[in-house]
Design goal:
A three-stranded antiparallel beta sheet has the order 1-2-3. Strand 1 and strand 2 form a beta hairpin. It is built from two helices and three strands, in the order ββααβ. With 70 residues, the protein is of the alpha+beta class. The protein is flat, with a radius of gyration of 13 Å.
Amino acid sequence: MGEKKLYYYRIFDDHETLNFIKSSLPHNEVEHWLKEYESSHQKYLNPEFIDYLRQHDPEAEIIEVSDISY
């Protein structure tokens, strides 16, 4: 069985909050579900969008990104 690809995206919501998400869906599918979500919600909030996206991709989640220096 082939390995499932994971994609990582940088997104901003209506509060200009930056989050990073991972999903098994390619960019065009995430864009599709984002447009669907925006058409049915007055405000776009990243945690709520991730909950919505999980209906179509159970692996979707917000991830923490930390800086590292060496």
